[in-house]
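seq:
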Amino acid sequence: MFSGRKEQSIGAAIKEWLKSQGMEGKMAETRILEEYDKIVGPIISQHTTSKRIDKSVLYIRLDSASLRYELGYARDKLKSQLNQVVGKNIIQNIVFS
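struct:
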């Protein structure tokens, strides 16, 4: 009935369309920001006042100087965990302020 047409799931079709529109990277960034709270846990999440991604750099604002200091040591591990969520190397650096 639909000869010659390639069937695919709705999810696959949406991913393909996002990629063709150049929005795949932005979707990955959004997913990273959504998953941040789960990865860092409730205590750090409560002390995070803002987070954003600009040019592959994740900017995290914290209300605790001691947490900023401690997270500086965990930067590479956090970066790896966040990139693992989307399966791509989206975050190149993390800046805590």
